[in-house]
Amino acid sequence: MISAHLKKLRQRFELSAAEEQEIEGLVADSRQVDPDQTIVRAGDKLDVSLLLLDGWLVRHKDMPGGERQITEVHVSGDFADLHGYTLKKLDHDVSSLSECTIGIVPHARLRSLFERNPRLGKLYWFLTNMDAAIHREQILSLGRRSAIERMAHLFCELYVRLEVAGCATGDRFAFPLTQRELSECLGLTVVHANRTLQELRRRQLVEVGSREVRIIDRAGLEAVAEFDPEYLYLDKQPI
Amino acid sequence: MISAHLKKLRQRFELSAAEEQEIEGLVADSRQVDPDQTIVRAGDKLDVSLLLLDGWLVRHKDMPGGERQITEVHVSGDFADLHGYTLKKLDHDVSSLSECTIGIVPHARLRSLFERNPRLGKLYWFLTNMDAAIHREQILSLGRRSAIERMAHLFCELYVRLEVAGCATGDRFAFPLTQRELSECLGLTVVHANRTLQELRRRQLVEVGSREVRIIDRAGLEAVAEFDPEYLYLDKQPI
DNA sequence: CGAAGCATTGAAGTGCGTCAACAATCGTGG
DNA sequence: CCACGATTGTTGACGCACTTCAATGCTTCG
Q1: Beta-sheet strands, E only, within B79-201
Q2: Is A103 exposed, middle or buried (0-12, 13-18, 19+ CB in 10 A)?
Q3: Furthest C-alpha separation in chain A
Q4: Cβ(B232)–Cβ(B157) under 8 Å?
Q5: C-alpha to C-alpha distances, A115 to A9, A16, B22, B118, nearest whole angstrom
Q6: Quick check: B125 and A59 CB within 8 A?
Q7: CA A59/CA A96 separation, integer angstroms
Q8: Chain A residue at shortest CA distance from B118
Q9: Secondary structure letter of residue B83 according to DSSP
Q10: How far in angstroms lies nucleotide D8's C1' from the CA of residue A61?
Q11: Looking at residues B59-86, what average pLDDT do you find?
């Protein structure tokens, strides 16, 4: 079940068998979570982080008026709140989109692992910095890209990340987001997200059906999005 | 000259005199940089990070079409690319807005410091996670706030951050951004940034004059922005 | 003093939001 | 297996926040 996480790491780093075992040992416990549950609330004091073993989560910030902005979508293998290891409380909520399996990683275990193996410490620091890079791309999307470019970009990014985690088969991947949630990622209204989705379909770029996405024309989609995966740091890292 | 950085740290952590000296020892060299220089380019291989001792920098991402989105504004005391310590190359450029004094911090020194003092390692990890929190607030701004709310929010944030660094006097602070650069932070056109600025002035909230900002009505400004500094982690951290 | 950048203004256009209704799908219990 | 209410998706009409284009004055600084 931790394999998605290991795949994500192996994409970027050489790991010894011993290190992989250490990493597996981080998970003290695992939990099943129903869809649409808020798992961590902004401000909660934390002494564990959540490794998403299977399913979909989002981090989101809510406005007083009730509007919500999703700051990042998480897929199997992602640490949802590794930054909580240093921040000790979050500035956002974490909620489930689908049924999820979540690995509980006590901060004490992280600390002791990083003491024994500082290389892994730096590796996990890298992961939080990669999340920040994803944030920056999101800032670029929201600040400068049109609705259709943003949406195309999101599908491009998710496809790559899911592929790395071993969760995409051919040109398809499971996709539990409703159009409301999609609009909350993209800074749009539901109505406009719906129309934008139709436009992508009309252009024969993606099909977004019942809980599934099919990329029809990947090159075309990437062209619309001006997608460049550089910010995902997919190549082997020196460290 | 490193005092702004130490102020920023002392706001959040207790530092021993020995630790402060270690931190001062990080800076191998310092450089003066003219305004409007690109100091680091996306993709450059890095083995040093830049500690902004004095002045203003931005990180920005440029689109093929030439539009630019500023992802974060940096003031005295900020590490502009500490995340480069783990990423080894950036997904964005770093450019100067004003004349700057920049401390060069070799990654080798960071590594050796963190080996000797893992607490400081975690502290700097915290700083990069704080930057990510600022990114998330920016995502919320761009996704859900109107032009005037966004602009008000930016001024609120900068005021707090400058105060912490000891760079705000009373209700004023130096402000080298042109309206174009302001618009590039906020995901607006220059024209609309200009009109929004006028609206803030008309409402008697801020005055933005020749290279200086004066906060006229801080409470009013924070109300427009719905500003809550929680995401800046201003209180003392446990670690 | 002149050129180049920066700030400001007006008029017109548009991408996306808002409101409101309806259709399709889903989950649940009877 | 059907009935139902609730959630999700879709559509149309209309409005507005922000953009675009273009012109003009205002600084700043060689």
Answers
A1: 93-96, 100-106, 172-174
A2: buried
A3: 55
A4: yes
A5: 19, 17, 20, 8
A6: no
A7: 9
A8: A115
A9: T
A10: 23
A11: 96
Strand partners, B192: none
Average pLDDT over residues B92-107: 97
Spatial separation of the C-alpha atoms in residues A217 and B229, rounded to whole Å = 44
Neighbour tally for A52: CB within 10 Å: 26
CA of A146 to C1' of C26 (A): 32
Output the furthest CA–CA distance in chain B (Å, rounded): 55
The alpha helices in A187-229, defined as continuous H runs, are 190-202, 218-225
By C-alpha distance, the chain B residue nearest A184 is B143
- 3-class DSSP assignment, residue A209: strand
B143 in Cβ contact with A68 (< 8 Å):
no
pLDDT digits (tens, 9 = 90+) for B150-188: 999 999 999 999 999 999 999 999 999 999 999 999 999
Is there a contact between B135 and A135 if contact means CB atoms under 8 Å apart?
A: yes
**Helix, strand, or coil (residue B208):** strand
**8 Å CB contact of A115 and B118:** yes
B192, B199 contact by CB (below 8 A): no
Cβ of A122 less than 7 A from strand D: no
Measured between CB atoms, which of A63, A142, A233 is closest to B139? A142
Residue A196 CA to nucleotide D5 C1', Å?
A: 29
The contacts of residue A51 (CB under 8 Å, 6+ apart) are A2, A5, A26, A27, A78, A79, A80, A102, A103, A104, A105
What tens-digit pLDDT sequence spans chain A (239 residues)? 789 999 999 999 999 999 999 999 999 999 999 999 999 999 999 999 999 999 999 999 999 888 999 999 999 999 999 999 999 999 999 999 999 999 999 999 999 999 999 999 999 999 999 999 999 999 999 999 999 999 999 999 999 999 999 999 999 999 999 999 999 999 999 999 999 999 999 999 999 987 999 999 999 999 999 999 999 999 999 87
**Domains of chain B as residue ranges with CATH:** 3-135 (2.60.120.10), 138-232 (1.10.10.10)
Judge: A83–B143 Cβ closer than 8 Å, yes or no.
no
Residue type, position A83, single letter? H
Sign of CA dihedral B9, B14, B15, B17: positive
Query: Model's pTM, two decimal places?
Result: 0.97
**Tokens representing residue A115 in the block:** 């003491």
